[in-house]
Design brief:
- The protein contains eight helices and 19 strands.
- It is of the alpha+beta class.
- Helix 2 crosses helix 3.
- The longest helix has 18 residues.
- The chain starts with a strand and ends with a strand.
- The chain binds adenosine-5'-triphosphate.
- Adenosine-5'-triphosphate binds next to helix 1.
- It is a peripheral membrane protein.
- GO terms for molecular function: ABC-type tungstate transporter activity; ATP binding; ATP hydrolysis activity.
- Part of the ABC transporter complex WtpABC involved in molybdate/tungstate import. Responsible for energy coupling to the transport system.
Length: about 350
């Protein structure tokens, strides 16, 4: 099994590196057996990162190592990497079994088993036993992606790379495939890098997540860390709904700091001396009408019924505010508050 390391990896497309800068100094360590996800908006460099790991693109700068071994001169077919792309990319004129067996064209099956046995094992692993004789066009989208996964896993690669493998599927199928991928990954214990623009999917499926933006890594952490303790404003706003505020630090009040925003005073957990400005965030679920601290009046603009809760979009002094309430509010004006400990400080500045 394999540890993957990216050290200062940059990529500039175009002749002589004069075109688009897609990656800027990306440092990532993916631990042996880990399910690691690259998440970020369209164009942030996720696919480019995956393609440089696979060897389909050469980095302009930096180093990629598998278990300490530099991959610079190693071509893709000698990297022991299984890749699954967004589109199914199955061969339409080959049966399901032939598609899976195609993964073994460069390599003998592991442990001396026959190709047929290996293909049968893999079809069982992806819950497609008995479907080997079908053509790809006799399968659903989810089943085709499972064939693609079986094909990638056939030669027992050291590393599995998945580039938005579920994005062409409907929501229900996506969730069921997500559970299957998760089960298979932990059964095999294979080091996996997964790419998605869907932050909810990233949080649900990963051991750790790297949030990318503009070719850079904004934060790497466990899903709970990235969600509860975003390191940057971008992460706070990209991962789940959030409210980000900026205020002036106005001294202490016991164990709390006093913060002024538009002349109103708020209490936050104690802020280190020397900071004049603070950027902090409060999750929608932490803003409640019952809270008696840090109250702010909100003008409701839209309400979205989500089943268990209602997402309310509103404004406070011109700022966008998102609330998560148990029911659609009865009035267009309401006051909510938050407990100081529910605020997370993102950034501190001096004037
Ligand atoms: N072959 C290429 N030639 C030139 N520029 C490219 C090429 N591939 C990607 N880019 C550019 O590099 C940047 C990163 O693209 P990349 O595909 O890695 O992003 P992404 O995060 O995977 O986006 P998406 O989620 O839309 O697939 C973008 O600005 C893109 O336009």
């Amino acid at each position: 099994m394999t540890e993957l390391r990216l050290e200062g990896v940059s990529k500039v497309y175009g002749a002589n590196g004069t075109g688009t800068s897609a990656l800027e100094g990306v440092d990532i360590t993916v631990r042996d057996g880990e399910f690691f996800t690259l998440v970020g908006p369209s164009g942030c460099g996720k696919t480019t990162t995956l393609r440089t790991i696979a060897g389909f693109e050469a980095p302009t700068d930096g180093t990629i190592r598998f278990d300490g071994r530099e991959m610079g001169d190693v071509p893709p077919e000698r990297r022991d990497v299984g890749v699954v792309f967004q589109s199914y990319a199955l061969f339409p004129h080959m049966s399901v079994a032939e598609n899976v067996g195609y993964g073994l064209r460069f390599r003998e099956p592991p442990d001396g088993v026959t190709v047929d046995d290996r293909v049968a094992d893999l079809l069982e692993l992806v819950d497609l036993e008995g479907m080997g004789d079908r053509d790809p066009d006799q399968l659903s989208g989810g089943q085709r992606q499972r064939v693609a996964l079986a094909r990638a896993l056939a030669p027992a690669p050291d590393l599995l790379l998945l580039d938005e493998p579920m994005s062409a599927l409907d929501a229900q199928l996506r969730e069921s495939l997500r559970r299957q991928v998760s089960r298979i990954q932990s059964e095999l214990g294979i080091t996996t890098v997964y790419v998605t623009h869907d932050q909810a999917e990233a949080l649900a499926i990963s051991d750790r997540v790297a949030v990318m933006n503009g070719g850079r890594i904004e934060q790497v952490g466990r899903p709970q860390e990235v969600y509860r303790e975003p390191a940057t404003r971008f992460v706070a706003e990209f991962v789940g709904d959030n409210n980000v505020f900026e205020g002036d630090v106005r001294g202490r009040n016991g164990e709390y700091s006093r913060i002024a925003i538009d002349g109103e005073t708020f209490s936050l957990p104690s802020i280190p001396d020397g900071a004049d400005r603070v950027t902090f965030c409060v999750r929608p679920g932490a803003l409640s009408q019952a809270a008696d601290h840090n109250r702010l009046p909100v003008t409701v603009e839209t309400s979205e019924f989500l089943g268990e809760t209602v997402r309310v979009n509103g404004r406070w002094n011109g700022r966008r505010v998102v609330l998560q309430l148990p029911a659609v509010p009865e009035s267009a004006e309401l006051t909510v508050g938050f407990a100081p400990d529910d605020a997370h400080v993102i950034d501190l500045d001096r004037d």
